[in-house]
Amino acid sequence: MERRNAARMMVDIPAWCLLDGHRHPCRAVDLSATGMLISRSRAFSERDLPQLGAYEMFLGSRRPIRFRARTVRCEGPLVAVRFVVMNDADRLSIAEHADELARRRISLH
Hints:
By secondary structure, the chain is an alpha+beta fold. The chain has a single domain, classed as Thrombin, subunit H (Beta Barrel). Helices cover 23% and strands 49% of the residues. The protein has 2 helices and 6 strands; from the N terminus they run βββαβββα. The protein has a 6-stranded antiparallel beta barrel. Strand 4 and strand 5 form a beta hairpin. The protein is globular. The protein starts with 8 loop residues before the first strand and ends with a helix.
């Protein structure tokens, strides 16, 4: 049963999971205003993630978007998370990024 509340977009965005005082690189592969799907490296995918984790990602700006997210699902290297704590300006940045991607896709067709 699908329970998504926001439109999703396929992306390839650098992201990091902050765990045990270290930044673990990963990639955001699916993004919406409410959460994202990340792909972890093989070594990192063997680690157990906390129920609530700290993350950051870049959407082309100099400043990273930092947030807390709840782990919804883990399937091998893929982890689905729902945003719990995020600055409102950063949520707006994600929405603007989604709009820009949608405009580019429409102009290509």
